[in-house]
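Postdoc handover notes: sequence design on the structure in folder B. Input tokens:
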């Protein structure tokens, strides 16, 4: 497992096929854009697990738990 500040332009998410995010509410739109730019716009696929907060405007494949323990599973491109 590698922990990175992946919103950095130095980190290319297209190198990863699975991404686990434990972010804060205000970061989720930025994270969604980063996955879109790095992966989807370059023809790559990615599975994303978002913990605690969902990705806005993105429909999850599934969700598990509730409240602060809820996680969402996404596949890009959707």
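Designed sequence:
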């Amino acid at each position: 497992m590698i922990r990175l500040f992946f919103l950095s332009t130095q980190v290319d998410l297209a190198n990863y096929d699975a991404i686990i995010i434990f972010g804060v509410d205000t970061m989720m739109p930025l994270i969604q854009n980063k996955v879109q730019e790095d992966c989807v716009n370059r023809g790559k696929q990615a599975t994303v697990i978002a913990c605690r907060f969902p990705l806005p405007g993105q429909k999850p494949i599934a969700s598990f738990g509730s409240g602060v323990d809820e996680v969402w599973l996404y596949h890009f491109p959707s």
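Context for whoever picks this up: The longest helix spans residues 28-38. Don't rerun without checking with the PI first.
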